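Lab notebook, bench 4. The sequencing result for the construct came back, and we need a structural model before the next group meeting so we can plan mutations. Quick request posted to the team channel:

Model the 3D structure of this chain.
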Amino acid sequence: MPRPAMLRIHKEADGKGGFVLRLEGSLLSSWVPELASVLETMPAEAIVIDLSSLAYADRQGERLLRDLAARAELRGC
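Done. Here's the predicted structure in token form:
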């Protein structure tokens, strides 16, 4: 079964002054710059990244998520 080549990024306020990014689909190397650009527009603190609907991350996607773990809370891993 092929992996979905799409990445959907949902940005939601958490009601406490922070944001939740919910990722759906596949975080492939071609989508890493898009996710990085979304993250650049967000405040450095109070970010939660919900990975519960992420089906797959390739090597570059995994690297980005590891780097993000220093500045964001990762959920659903």
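The mean pLDDT is 89.
Will bring this to the meeting.
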